[in-house]
Amino acid sequence: MNTPVPEYLANLLYNCKANGGGQLADYIPELASADPNKLAVALTTLDGLVYSAGDDEYEFSIQSISKAFTYAYVIEELGLDTVLKKVGVEPSGEAFNEISLDQSEDRPKPKNPMINSGAITTHSLIANADNTCRAEIIRKFFSELAGRELSFDMSIFQSEMNTAYRNLSIGYSLRNVSILESDPTEIIESYIKQCSINVTVKDLVNMISVLVNDGILPRTGERILSHKTVRQVLTVMTTCGMYDAAGDWLANVGIPAKSGVAGGIIGVLPGQVGLAVFSPKLDGHGNSVRGIDIMQQLSNDMGLHLLEGVPSSRVIVHDQSVVRTKPEVKVYKLQGVLQFTEAERLLRILQDEDKSDNIIVFDLSHISLVNDVGRRMFLDGIDRLRADGHDVALIDPDLVLRDAKTPRKFVPKIYQDIQEVLN
Ligand code: GLN
């Protein structure tokens, strides 16, 4: 049997081909000569497997998609508080290259890191103690995430540099209010170089696999970003990633995303999948027309809208039985996921356990996932049962509770007896 995913992706592209709407970006002259027919999609699973279809080997400049990763990089380097002093997190409701500053606080600052003023500021925060070009530091970071050596597209870079009037004026405005602390021309040049890094859709999904996996790169198992950094990046992608089309996007697609003017879009559904699409023609907001189409279909077909929510498994106690008397041994077989909703349900059920010195066994063999609050509440429940005189044992063959500060009091002999009874 072959998995149907590649076929599904190929079909998706086929169905979107007819949509010829949009315009090539022309404020970067080199982008105006891009091939408008190129079309590609890629998907990474939670464990880092990549599926792709169409022009999946075709390289294009990352452009504004880079902003999300550079933001992650500087938060990791400097800490979120320092970064927030320079760049806010409010959606701007304006075009990506608007020369605007949030004046609502004592000190004006860019509204968010996804518009150019915020991204230029973020770029300026990359520490380059030995005067290495900041864009080179970023190229290395992106390459590490992509799992191959990425390169700058020097003709795109030169082309944008030749007409960078708007970004330069943003740079000078930022220098004027001391948000930029050094020569704006040098920072703009390096920022534009960051935007010119060439990627394929496959590179993009490899890069976002770190965001899908809560900061761990599945290919290497290495933690690259903290949980806090990932949450922050995904938050601004959700509210600001599609510029002033962010509301429409959230309503129709519902996946944290970031677009670039070369025609790429990334979408990250934490704990589930990462998506990347490429098609060069853009709508009035600077987002790929066919890219939006594809993302919308993927979201609908695969039920990926963020606000669909992860449904509770509802039944947390699958079975409850007394397997032995004198001393009494009662087994609760648990199932599904253990998050707040399920933990609360379980503790409510356990309230009916009268004080006694019986033995309560929790069989976690069919628990697939325990989150932090689920774990804390469950362990607290165990402590309370023990305070009431019960002896408590766990059957946890997959160590789903392994992050807990256990071992708590375990009862090996009885555990074995119980294993026998259960088998
Ligand atoms: N390099 C482009 C710019 O700064 C990126 C813009 C974008 O992709 N939206 O104008």
Question: Could you please describe the fold and organization of this structure?
Answer:
The chain has 423 residues and is an alpha+beta fold. The protein folds into 2 domains: 5-302, Beta-lactamase; 317-416, Transcription Regulator spoIIAA. It has 15 helices and 13 strands. Strands 2-1-9-8-7 form a 5-stranded antiparallel sheet, sandwiched between helices. β7 (257-259) and β8 (264-269) form a beta hairpin. The site of glutamine (GLN) has 12 residues, from α8. Residues 63-64, 96-97, 116, 160, 167, 192, 195, 260-261, 286 line the site of glutamine.
Question: In summary, what is this structure?
Answer:
This protein is of the alpha+beta class and 423 residues long. The protein has helices at 5-16, 66-78, 80-86, 116-124, 134-146, 154-162, 165-176, 184-195, 201-212, 227-240, 246-252, 289-302, 340-350, 372-387, 412-422, and strands at 40-44, 50-54, 60-61, 198-199, 216-217, 222-223, 257-259, 264-269, 273-278, 317-324, 329-338, 359-370, 391-395.
Distinct ligands, ions and cofactors found in the model: glutamine
DSSP, total strands: 13
Report the biggest beta sheet as strand number plus sense, adding barrel if it closes.
5 strands, antiparallel
Which structural class should the secondary elements be placed in?
alpha+beta
Number of helices: 15
- Taken together, the total number of domains comes to 2
CATH superfamily of the largest domain: DD-peptidase/beta-lactamase superfamily
Radius of gyration: 26 Å
CATH architecture of the largest domain: 3-Layer(aba) Sandwich
